[in-house]
Design goal:
The protein is of the alpha/beta class. The chain contains ten helices and eight strands. Helices cover 48% and strands 15% of the residues. An eight-stranded mixed sheet has the order 7-5-6-4-1-2-3-8, with helices on both faces. Helix 1 (38-52) links the parallel strand 1 and strand 2 (55-62). Helix 5 packs parallel to helix 8 and helix 9 (245-274) packs antiparallel against helix 10. The protein is elongated. The chain starts with 23 loop residues before the first strand and ends with a strand.
Length: 328
């Protein structure tokens, strides 16, 4: 049934209905401050696709790195006709870099993966084989994710949001290691949003999704730059760009405050008929005004956030800018 996820398993899968050699593939890799490892990652991807005899394109997107990553991937692109390197004007974020890569990609299927070697390129063959069963999106489901505890907690929080906002099925796991069919890629690229979120958009613009179990390796060099701050920023982006939940929560809070204010006003009004008014009530008034004004300012700030994001969405032509493009 459309929209029902599946997971590959040995011995219980029918034969693929499509032949992977009949299609072309693009691999999109956002690159950020990974000069020490990205060269090996590129070589590994190229060797795997060459060994499999697949028609491929490798798109490397430098997202404003400051450590020489651009020099590494530009050199790789000059030496291989299958490799394209894009240098973004500044650091826009992983999802903007992925979007730039998707728009550059020409393959019938597009695979996205990380630059740090944690997604073994040979595991991409599992994604491809599962896509050959007719799925429009296949997410890699990690056997065991090699990440810090706070990142796993962040992933769980984002997964909860995905299920509420993008209707992610309960038995579907999502990750940045995925394969997207061309029609899904085209819908994502055509979407007018100043705040791309590729995982959520892949869920929005697909109907036949699946999981396949893949390995997730520990980093050989350095540590992830995707800290708690970036996770919180992503949560903030999802909530305000793709959901009306904060606005509805603010409205509910406003109604609650209004109801409490009305009741307090009624209580003080009735009390004034039986008890003499005293000047000591100024303290209560000052506290109530501070609370209610604070809530009002908070709600206005939230409305302002929606207005700014709406303005960005309707006025922004490009959410990123490519400074340089290198190919063999």
């Amino acid at each position: 049934m459309a929209g029902t996820p599946a997971e590959a398993g040995p011995g219980d899968r029918p034969e693929a209905t499509l032949d992977r050699n009949d299609f072309t593939y693009s691999v999109v890799v956002p690159v950020y401050n990974s000069a020490g490892v990205v060269g090996r990652t590129v070589d590994h991807i190229v060797s795997v696709f060459e060994a499999e005899g697949l028609d491929y394109q490798l798109v490397l997107v430098n997202d404003g790195s400051s450590d020489g990553s651009w020099d590494v991937i530009a050199e790789k692109a000059r030496g291989n006709k299958h490799v394209v390197a894009l240098n973004l004007l500044r650091n826009y974020g992983q999802h903007h870099a992925n979007l730039a890569g998707l728009r550059e990609a020409t393959g019938d299927f597009v695979i996205t993966m990380d630059d740090d070697g944690q997604n073994p390129p040979e595991e991409a063959m599992r994604l491809i084989d599962e896509a050959m069963h007719g799925h429009d999106v296949v997410f890699g489901k990690f056997e065991r994710k090699q990440a810090a505890g706070y990142r796993r907690l962040g992933s769980k929080a984002i997964s909860m949001i995905n299920r509420r906002i993008f209707l992610q099925p309960q038995d579907l796991a999502v990750s940045n290691f995925r394969i997207l069919r061309r029609d899904v890629v085209d819908r994502i690229c055509a979407s007018r949003t100043a705040h791309p979120y590729i995982t959520g958009q892949a869920l929005m613009y697909s109907s036949h999704r699946a999981n396949v179990t893949v390995r997730h390796q520990a980093r050989d060099v350095g540590k992830s730059s995707y800290g708690m701050g970036r996770i919180l920023k992503l949560v903030f982006t999802i909530l305000f760009s793709y959901s009306s939940f904060p606005l509805r929560a603010a409205a509910l809070g406003g109604f609650v405050v209004a109801a409490v204010s009305f009741l307090l006003g009624a209580v003080y009004l009735v009390r004034s008929f039986f008890v003499d008014t005293q000047v000591q009530g100024w303290t209560t008034i000052a506290v109530l005004l501070a609370v209610f004004n604070g809530v009002t300012i908070g709600m206005l700030s939230m409305l302002g956030e929606y207005v700014v994001r709406t303005l960005n969405s309707v006025s922004a032509q490009d959410t990123y800018h490519v400074r340089e493009r290198v190919t063999g």
